[in-house]
Please model this.
Amino acid sequence: MSKRIRQSLRRLAEAEIRRLPRLASGAGSLAVVYPNEYRTGMANLGLHALLEAAHDHGGGRFSVDRCFLPGARDLAEHRRAGTPILGLESGRSLAAFDALLVSLSFEPDAVGLVQLLALSGVEPLAARRDERAPLVVAGGMAPTLNPEPLAPFCDLIGLGEAEALLPGLLEALLEEPDRSSLLERMAKQPGWYAPALAPDHPPPCARQHVTLTRPSMPAVLAPGAAFAGHVDLEISRGCRWRCAFCAAGHVVTPYRELQLEQLEPALGWALKQRGRVGLVGTDVSDHSGLEAIVRGIWDRGGEVALPSLRVEQLADAHAAAARLIAERPPRTVTMAVEAADAGLRRALGKRLSDEQLLAAARNMAAAGVANLRVYLLAGVPGERWEHIEAMVDLARELVAAGPGGRLTLSVTGMVPKPGTPMQWEPAPDRRYLRRVRAHLRAHLPRKEIELSFESPDWVRWQALLSLGGREVADRILAAADEGWRRTLTRAAREVPLLQGQGRDPDQPLPWAHVECGPGHDKLRRRRARLK
Ligand code: SF4
Model:
């Protein structure tokens, strides 16, 4: 057992500020597992929603701890010293918990899950585990969209929101005498999927959601977390729009929002701790109470950090988002534009004209914002090379119209997501994305515009994990051992999705049993309009 690992966990725990008390004892034991590094996990509201639900429904009956994937240096130390993954608070081995509640927002974290299990002496494949191993339960956005790549590793998968799913699981954990009766009971509950009980034809399973009554927020504040300078508060969930590429817009339904009075006492605690609140939601700029919330925070002497805003709201100088920014301009404003060509934007669901785009840049300049960051997608259906060339023109026009500071063009290849009209598309072509990157590097004026281009290989790796079936589990196992790049190189020679071949819209999809969003027929019709 490595002394250095224990000391480093103790230091992390000692530096934290707790909002929820530690639950150190109970008839059962739970570990909330984030299969990525501590600083990433502690910045993720999905992890905190899970922790809060475990506290709300497990308090007095379960101990609750947290486990993370160590960084590269600590990972080597774990392997050298044969030290398993340990609970941050109790120091207990991951293998010794009754259940692991795994929070998976991003598909590539599946590799981290396999590494965590293997490092702790827990067989990653569920079929090879016995009753002595902890129950592995996954939830979060990635398995809700498509549980199949994770299915071989998990005893149970919860589809939807932790607040809705956890109470039934915790009851069953205490009441059922053995694992098989637990799985059978859970498989009958809404939103729960037991892969081992339905290896070939999984039954329909509907995503679960709750009525929001209070914001998700950090259960524990970690100084070492990403974005630790403010406290995040979730003020809305879901989005009223349905951009064709966006899983949140299609799947996280219905749209729900919280008003200022519902944010108390969370707001009081957040301002006391940090004095700065990050407003979180997929569509914050359309929130009906945005102005009241921001002014409420200002009136209490606090500051506000806003996420990326819909450009339409920034283009209209009378809209709440534009007025608030004009009153207290942040250094940087982020705009999700997605396509430089207005026709392509419209096809993707962004009804945003070139005039509105430039008006938004002008408004931000007039408000005193120093820098703009603009998000664009490459490799979307219907895209032509002239649309890529238009990215350069658009960037130049934004520089001319917008703030005098830096413009960051943040470009990523589109990862087709299950549950959206893009779900039949293949992964974007590697050579094409590299060509786009080379073109932008060559033609954007470096003095004024910074280009941030997501690695084409990383985009394709995400696409493989998003769009695969159970067979993808073998790739995940391989990547946990040899690294994802090597696995992707081999997969690119073997997997049609990585060779430009999309799925047949008339054939069942691996995630067809997941019931959420508009349904496959509607998605198919929308897809036909994209081409
Ligand atoms: S991209 Fe933004 S506006 Fe469009 S559906 Fe997604 S969250 Fe909503």
